[in-house]
Automatic annotation (TrEMBL):
<keyword id="KW-0808">Transferase</keyword>
<dbReference type="Pfam" id="PF13393">
    <property type="entry name" value="tRNA-synt_His"/>
</dbReference>
<keyword id="KW-0963">Cytoplasm</keyword>
<dbReference type="GO" id="GO:0016757">
    <property type="term" value="F:glycosyltransferase activity"/>
</dbReference>
<dbReference type="InterPro" id="IPR006195">
    <property type="entry name" value="aa-tRNA-synth_II"/>
</dbReference>
<keyword id="KW-0368">Histidine biosynthesis</keyword>
<comment type="subunit">
    <text>Heteromultimer composed of HisG and HisZ subunits.</text>
</comment>
<protein>
    <recommendedName>
        <fullName>ATP phosphoribosyltransferase regulatory subunit</fullName>
    </recommendedName>
</protein>
<dbReference type="InterPro" id="IPR004517">
    <property type="entry name" value="HisZ"/>
</dbReference>
<keyword id="KW-0328">Glycosyltransferase</keyword>
<dbReference type="InterPro" id="IPR004516">
    <property type="entry name" value="HisRS/HisZ"/>
</dbReference>
<comment type="pathway">
    <text>Amino-acid biosynthesis; L-histidine biosynthesis; L-histidine from 5-phospho-alpha-D-ribose 1-diphosphate: step 1/9.</text>
</comment>
<keyword id="KW-0028">Amino-acid biosynthesis</keyword>
<dbReference type="Pfam" id="PF21996">
    <property type="entry name" value="HisZ-like"/>
</dbReference>
<dbReference type="InterPro" id="IPR053846">
    <property type="entry name" value="HisZ-C"/>
</dbReference>
<dbReference type="InterPro" id="IPR045864">
    <property type="entry name" value="aa-tRNA-synth_II/BPL/LPL"/>
</dbReference>
<dbReference type="InterPro" id="IPR041715">
    <property type="entry name" value="HisRS-like_core"/>
</dbReference>
Length: 394
């Protein structure tokens, strides 16, 4: 093992410098306020969880978990997502009434990277979970809230792709007959390897009609008309039930007035294995990965002893910042440079400006080697110099 350089960071870890931190904080604040307006309450969970509980309940691959041992010999993990920890809290402490829970969070999650490829091992998610509501209205609500939050933060061009994992599973199982064969075909969708998908379908021992149904499945992308086409290639009732849910979802989004942001992609699947129904991803210009995703997970809470459904979404804050580009809004920082003779006056002036909501830095003249150089760091420079002469601050 080679010796680490003094400034080297663990694989996938990043520093957040002041300007990016402020930008991220502004975006986080806008989204948080929008979530609160929709009645969602914020919650915090520990960074460390037990591997046997949250770690195993999470849909993140085992090799992506950061693991360590506590003093009692229990295996711990750095939380790999927020859905499983919130499910744990909801099941153990909050689900005491027959009322849906609306919870929100903003927190860092951790997923180990095998090699350096630009992917972070630590990143911030901000999202919501609507728990104990099994209606399609709840799915529509979280999609509408996500749309509203993105619009409030200033993102103009984005598209939400919606699918239904239940429809995919039922169609593949109906045609292919076994879970193993269905999962093998689903893997091509997850990898978005559509060429490999077609070649695999052609190699299967199926009738020409069934092969064509599987090939036509790849065409199920677009507007409301996609659902009608999907009805033509599915035969069993669970598959049709999934399509009826998507049709109902479309009507709900239309009533919200947000249908221009939504497209159906019935080939959509996810690496998050706990999704059971409607699922979605949101894409923005100039970003090669989804900036957010979500969906229904009706079986996760069973792992914590509660039999109820849930749905939610998470936004990847760093990817959202990339989609937003450079934000023009910036709160200027004022600097008051003072000498010993006018220090009290400088302190009083700074107090008055801060009371007005102005950001102020106080700087002793003796600690500045190059006064003129301060102009490159601060937006406004005021001087309070005594005997040396530089005149009163404005």
């Amino acid at each position: 093992m080679s010796r680490l350089f003094m400034f080297e960071k663990p694989l996938g870890m990043r520093d957040t410098l002041p300007e990016l931190y402020e930008t991220k904080n502004r975006v986080r604040s806008v989204i948080s306020e929008e979530m609160k307006k929709w009645g969602y309450q914020f919650i915090e969970t520990p960074t460390l969880e037990y591997y046997e509980t949250v770690g195993s309940a999470s849909a993140i691959l085992d090799q992506q978990l950061f693991k360590l041992l506590d003093q009692q010999g229990h295996t711990l993990v750095l939380r790999p997502d927020m859905t499983a920890p919130i499910a744990r809290v909801a099941a153990s402490k909050l689900l005491k009434e027959d009322l849906p829970l609306r919870l929100a969070y903003s927190a860092n999650v951790y997923r180990a990277q095998q090699r350096e490829g630009g992917r972070p091992a630590e990143f911030e998610q901000i999202g919501v979970e609507c728990i104990a509501d099994e209606t399609v209205s709840a799915d529509g609500e979280v999609i509408a809230l996500m749309t509203s939050a993105l619009s409030e933060v200033g993102l103009q061009e984005f598209q939400i792709s919606v699918g239904h994992i239940g429809f995919v599973q039922e169609l593949f199982l109906q045609i292919l007959g076994t879970e193993e064969r269905a999962q093998a075909l689903t893997k091509f969708l997850y990898e978005k390897n559509y060429v490999g998908y077609r070649e695999h379908v052609k190699s299967l021992a199926l009738s020409s009609i069934d092969k064509q149904r599987l090939l036509d499945f790849l065409k199920l992308r677009g507007g409301e008309e996609v659902i009608e086409f999907a009805f033509e290639i599915t035969e069993n009732e669970p598959g049709k039930k999934a399509l009826h849910e998507l049709k109902q979802l479309w009507n709900i989004i239309v009533d919200y007035g947000m249908e221009t942001k939504l497209k159906f992609d019935l080939t959509l699947v996810s690496h998050m294995s706990y999704y059971t129904g409607i699922l979605f991803e949101v894409y923005a210009d100039q970003v090669g990965f989804p900036i957010g995703n979500g969906g229904r997970y009706d079986l996760l809470l069973q792992k914590f002893g509660k039999n109820t459904g849930a749905t939610g979404f998470a936004l990847h804050l760093d990817r959202l910042l990339e989609a937003l580009g450079e934000l023009v809004e910036k709160n200027p920082i004022h600097c008051i440079i003072f000498s010993d003779e006018r220090r009290r006056e400088a302190f009083q002036l700074a107090k008055e400006k801060r009371a007005e909501g102005i950001k102020v830095v106080l700087q002793d003249i003796n600690g500045v080697k190059n006064v003129d150089g301060c102009t490159s760091q601060y937006d406004d420079i005021s001087f309070l110099i005594g005997k040396a002469g530089r005149g009163p601050a404005e």
